[in-house]
Amino acid sequence: MSDEREILTYALFGDAIKELAQEIVDDYRPDLILSIARGGLLIGGALGYAMGVKNVSVINVEFYTGIGETLDQPVMLPPTPEAVDLSGMKVLIADDVADSGKTLELVQQFCAETVTESRTAVIYEKSRSIIKPDYVWKKTDRWIDFPWSSFPVITPSGLPAGGEAS
């Protein structure tokens, strides 16, 4: 992997959401935005505000365990939305990046049995993704520094990252 990085600032994030939301509303009006936690939380919430969609929900999927390190397959963590909550809805699945695409694929499969239609929206898409999102702000194959995850984990004063107070 190249040392070159894609840097997303909060200001650029605002521009990305406005442009992505416009592309979506010109084509699709979802009943619900389903944000994939953690990376998709901010995207789903921001799109909800930008598009006037108040029905925003969260699904928690674990896949990345570290920088460039993943589980073999993504795993849905509880609590998951009840399938009846999605029944008959048009759903927009929101995430930060379609990297491998496996997380988006898992969530699409989860929705497939109950929703009327699901589409996907991401800030970034990588060329290796097995899912080609319906709405993408930018394509890149660089490592992405998001403003909400590019700094070290904050710990209580005097403790190392990941440390616990006694």
UniProtKB/TrEMBL annotation:
Residues 7-148 form the Phosphoribosyltransferase domain. The lineage of its organism: Bacteria, Bacillati, Actinomycetota, Actinomycetes, Mycobacteriales. This is Xanthine phosphoribosyltransferase. Its EC number is 2.4.2.22. Keywords: Glycosyltransferase, Transferase. SUPFAM superfamilies: PRTase-like (SSF53271). Pfam families: Pribosyltran. One of its GO terms (molecular function) is xanthine phosphoribosyltransferase activity. It comes from Corynebacterium provencense. Transmembrane segments: none annotated. It is an enzyme of class 2 (transferase).
